[in-house]
Amino acid sequence: MNSVEGKVAIVTGAGSGIGEATAKLLARAGAAVVVTDVDKPKADDVARAIEAEGGESLAIHHDVTREDHWDEVIYHTQADFDRLDILVNNAGVSGAGMGTLEDQTLETWHAVMRVNLDAVFLGCQKAVIAMKEAGGGSIINISSVMGIVGGAGAAYNASKGGVRLLTKSVAVYCGNNGYNIRVNSIHPGYIWTPMVRSIVNVMPAEENMTEDGLRAMLTERHPIGRLGEAIDIARGVLFLASDDSSFMTGSELVIDGGYTAV
Ligand code: NAP
User: Fold this and answer.
1) Is residue 211 part of a domain?
2) Catalytic-role residue among 75, 156, 173, 259
3) 224 is a domain residue
4) Distance, CA 176 to ligand 1 centroid (Å)?
5) How many distinct structural domains can be found in the chain?
6) Among this protein's residues, is 259 annotated catalytic?
7) What does each C-alpha distance from 137 to 8, 174, 211, 238 come to in angstroms?
8) Which of 97, 151, 203, 248 has a CA 20 to 30 Å removed from the CA of 27?
């Protein structure tokens, strides 16, 4: 079940959180994994951990907002592993601390869009071109519950909603062109990663919020009674990457502990 034996995957933002857990799980399930992150030392650590478990991995410095970096990542993936079967567009920023709707600047709006949405477009475009040569593949875009309902900053909501529809657009394009490339989005609820933990640092001082307090507040919004762990999302990625999800494309996999069911 959920095997990706012999497949080649790229995971962006894989030095931390959901990306790290995903890279390690895909490797355990048999894939060679290209671990990319804007923070190269973190990517190196993850690649070393994969190799220590007997897996195949390559770490690459990759700022997902840069088209030239994408070209290098695809080039090295094909040079080292001959093909590309799976892309996980995971890198993202929360936009926390960038102000409210009324005081956010256009500059910070664009900063969120560049990482969370423009880069997913670039990744999809480059991967489709590489995958169609190899006869097919699976692209998984990490959106959010905030791509379905409001409640985060405007830029984060808009970027993640954009990822949801971009995914469907690319899925339909690939289907219409007979490319055998499946494209799906994942919509996590709150996952206890460095991104979420760091929200406490940008909350107004008068709120006196602690990490424990933040965790308790967020937990209350999830009917299942806990926050997610990175592995909860990694398991969804593995399913969408594997042939077990072979009839799924253009769909949205919600993994949110009931957040959007309320
Ligand atoms: P994380 O722990 O902060 O990991 C994100 C990784 O992406 C970090 O290593 C970060 O590096 C890297 N990154 C940031 N900007 C980048 C860029 N321009 N190019 C390449 N890498 C970059 O966050 P996470 O919680 O695992 O989030 C992963 C994805 O899940 C994001 O798309 C996020 O929006 C989404 N998501 C998260 C949650 C949640 O509750 N955690 C919920 C829904 C969706 P630095 O640390 O050096 O910036």
Assistant:
1) no
2) 156
3) no
4) 32
5) 1
6) no
7) 10, 10, 40, 13
8) 248
User: What secondary structure, in 3-state letters, does 178-203 show?
Assistant: CCCEEEEEEEECCECCHHHHHHHHHC
pLDDT band at 235 (very low <50, low <70, confident <90, very high): very high
Tell me how far the alpha carbon of residue 19 lies from the centroid of ligand 1, in angstroms.
7
Widest pairwise Cα distance in the chain: 56
Structural domain includes residue 222: no
Chain centroid to Cα 259, Å, comes to 19
What range does the domain containing 165 cover? 8-193+229-261
**pLDDT (tens digit, 9 = 90+) per residue, 65-75?**
999 999 999 99
Retrieve residue 148's tokens: 């379905």
Q: Could you report the per-residue pLDDT of 145-203, keeping only the tens digit for each? A: 999 999 999 999 999 999 999 999 999 999 999 999 999 999 999 999 999 999 999 98
Residue 47: pLDDT over 80: yes
Q: Give, for ligand 1, the residue of 18, 69, 113, 256 to mutate: max count of ligand atoms closer than 8 Å to Cβ.
A: 18
Dihedral angle sign, alpha carbons of residues 156, 174, 245, 234: negative
